[in-house]
Design goal:
This protein is mainly beta. The chain has three helices and 16 strands. The protein has two domains: 12-115, Immunoglobulin-like; 119-222, Sandwich (Immunoglobulin-like), CATH 2.60.40.1120.
Length: 226
């Protein structure tokens, strides 16, 4: 038995035997206030549209989160869901945006800070540069042409849309109306979604081309099937 125990000990993966690393994060809102009830989601690759490899407990009243992970390189985001569940974000939920890359070493306590925002906040921020923006407005509709509330329009310069698109509208109103601000004239791909991050389907995207002589465009966007 002693020999068997020694052999098992020698067979242990060195990475598993290493001291764990600790991620100590603080989650804040856009005003700099600590966020209670947020979680950090840790991935071992840049693909953050899949289930996370590690998920923290909820942040405390100070926005603090502590999570132990094996040493390595990770991509990390913070999320706040109003109902405390998992899954895609819905209106009122918050997200920290593009993942932060963290590489904690064995035994290290690595501090990090995340700012979470509802995409309504992101949409409002775009309005601050509205005077020099291209404005795309219209309705979000379903496959039958009916208006869709609580969805949003997103745009990117290529069809390789990331988890957090370059440009986002605020949530659509009860009539499906949206307004999206784009920084310059040019070619974009545009889509609509009711969940965040948006779906991957490239076929749901449509091209939008604006010229420098026009600053206000109207276009209805069909919601992707989800």
């Amino acid at each position: 038995m002693l020999v068997l125990a020694c052999l098992l000990w020698l067979a242990v993966d060195p990475l598993q035997a290493a001291d764990p690393a600790t991620i100590k994060a603080v989650v804040l809102d856009v005003a700099g206030n600590p966020v209670t009830g947020a979680k950090i989601f840790v991935y071992d690759s840049a693909d953050t549209r899949r289930p996370a490899d590690f998920i923290s407990p909820m942040s405390d009243r100070g926005g603090r989160v502590v999570l132990q992970v094996p040493p390595g390189r990770y991509w990390v985001v913070a999320r706040l869901k109003k109902d405390g569940t998992y899954g895609p974000l819905m209106p009122g939920d918050k997200h920290s945006g593009e993942p932060a890359t963290l590489e904690p070493a064995a035994g290290e306590e690595l501090a990090s800070e995340f700012v979470v925002a509802d995409i309504r906040d992101v949409g409002r921020k775009k309005q601050t540069v509205a005077a020099e923006s291209i404005i795309l407005r219209g309705r979000i509709v379903d496959g039958s042409g009916e208006p869709v509330a609580n969805a949003y329009v997103f745009a990117a310069r290529t069809k390789q849309v990331g988890p957090v698109p370059e440009f986002l509208s605020a949530w659509s109103d009860s009539l499906g109306n949206y307004t999206l601000y784009l920084p310059t004239a040019g070619r974009y791909v545009v889509g609509a979604a009711a969940q965040f991050p948006p779906p991957r389907q490239a076929e749901a995207l449509r091209d939008f081309v604006s010229d420098s002589g026009t600053s206000d465009f109207v276009m209805d966007v069909t919601l992707a099937v989800q």
